[in-house]
Records
---
Amino acid sequence: MKNYYLITTQYLENYGAHCDSGKFSDGKACWKYKGGGQYLISTDSPREANAVAFLTDYLHKGNDIHSKELVVGWEQIGQGYTEPHVDGDYKSIDIEEYFNNPVVKS
């Protein structure tokens, strides 16, 4: 049986990295909020923190001096054998499937 967690993210863009270093150390950082996303994480684990930690690590791989995506909220939205209905756009990732075949389903 799967546990389902809807996790919300915030995207940030560093305008200082467009034409300069974008670093805090030289005063060139200029981060701005730029929307966000939703992820439906499914897992065999009943631990909500496992889903949050997984997505945090997953997103960290794409973060750099130009942009970052951060976890800002989460909730368990179901448990069962079929994916629950979620309104809006989201990416669906099953943790166990990810480690067997790391492809994100849209």
---
Amino acid sequence: MTTKRQINGTAVRAMRELLGVKHGIFAIDCDISPGYLTNIEAGRKQPASNVQRAIADRLGVPLDAITYVVHDSAAA
């Protein structure tokens, strides 16, 4: 069984808005496109771990604040 972290896009958007950071500026700060950020916040895309970390760092929160653990029990 493997574990991975998935991002909670709703939490990302809520925190970004509370900080008052515009969508496009936040995307640039995280080194991603505004369209990709839209998909993350809408829950349509799951970013790689380095992007998850960049988002958490930009928000000033621990990774656990914007992600949750998913256990994959599929056989290899």
